[in-house]
Design a protein that fits this description.
By secondary structure, the protein is of the alpha/beta class. The protein contains 13 helices and 8 strands. Strand 4 and strand 5 form a beta hairpin.
Length: 352
Amino acid sequence: MIETEVLVRGPEGGPGKLRLVEYTDPYSIWCWGCEPAVRRVEWVYAGSVDLEIRMGGLFEDFTPMREQFARMSGGQWKDSVLAFMNAVAEHHRMPMDPAAMMDTIEDFRSTWPACEAVKAAELQGVPVGRRYLRRLREAALVEGQAIHRRAVQEKLASEVGLRVRDFMLALADGTARRAFEADLETCRAHGVTGFPTFECGTGDVSLRIEGWQPWEAIDDTLRKMDPSLKGDGRRVGDPPRGPGRGGEGGAARSREGRDVGAAVENGAERLASVGVLIRQSDASFTSDARFWGAGQSPAYPRCGCGLGSSSPLPRTPRNHGGGHCRDPRRGHADGKDLGRRSPRSREPRLSR
């Protein structure tokens, strides 16, 4: 089931290659949850689907959200944020270390510097830009690094093989900022207010899905737009390849990539084709957790948001984001990060 479908007008033109656009933010913990599915699109449909990544700028100023968390928690805003991040990690089951993330939150004011860093990386080519975005996510959400700081951005740029001098110059002279502003304008023009948001289509009409999605939902949407879509059968069941730290075309060295690769080597090939990696029920919320296929997932626990809800989560990954926590201020109710933006209507509609 796709929770939200919105038909939107895209660039004028006739039918062409299927395109999937992801509107995202390096700091978005819901976008991090979609990484296995997005990487699988690149892996299975490498010759059939063009993937585009656009920066959405989740928080220009985090201060109002910080104050909101403080009001909701009687002044204990850090505890409130930590509970929220723990709940999201349990929801999408990707590796996260919320405690480490909290260590760098004192001087965190905006996600925009990290978005600009992605655009600076993309100026050196799409492949290395993707590697850099992936490395930013790992650094922030698994390792607790402060990716809003220029020194951290520079260090990570060197790790993924960027020309660091050119990268830093693009940040200093405004080139990266202008590229980011172009992405922001695209978000406004398309009415994108939450992250992740995906638009899939050909020509001038696209189908939109919003919020965290498992592989099946994204795959269903791609096939809805192009029923003749066929993946590379040789790749189904192979260990996912990703940007990570392993270099272009190499096996990702992230915890996620290593665990999937090991599972495949051990004969559990089906795990690589699931698309959503599930944490063992007894694993901690750290980068040391191991991850397995959806078929091995435990019964989903009760809502852990710490903000008042105790209703059970839906029992299947395809129904994640259901009505277990309806207050939109609690962020994870719809499986997407809204930032400063107001909740969108859930009704399908045609935008002209």
